[in-house]
Amino acid sequence: MLWTLFGILIAIWLLGFILDVMGGFIHIVLVIAAIVMVINFIRGRGRA
Questions:
Q1: CA atoms of 30 and 38, how far apart (whole Å)
Q2: Distance between terminal CA atoms of the chain?
């Protein structure tokens, strides 16, 4: 699920670069999603 969301955000981010859709908003959302993904990855490793 998380990887699907990450893939969708990457696609929208690339579309934003190509078509300049929604300005910098999607870049902020992508950075937040990447940070959350890293935190989840680190927490998952700590429990295992």
A1: 12
A2: 20
Residue linked to tokens 């990457």: 10
Task: For residues 30 and 14, give the distance between their C-alpha atoms in angstroms, rounded to a whole number.
Answer: 11
Residue 39, CA distances (Å) to 8, 14, 18, 22, 32 in order: 19, 23, 29, 26, 11
Instruction: Give 1-42 pLDDT, tens digit per residue.
Output: 677 877 887 787 777 777 776 667 767 777 887 888 888 888
Query: At a CB cut-off of 8 Å and minimum separation 6, what does 19 contact?
Result: none
pLDDT band at 45 (very low <50, low <70, confident <90, very high): low
**Residue 35 near residue 42, CB atoms below 8 Å:** no
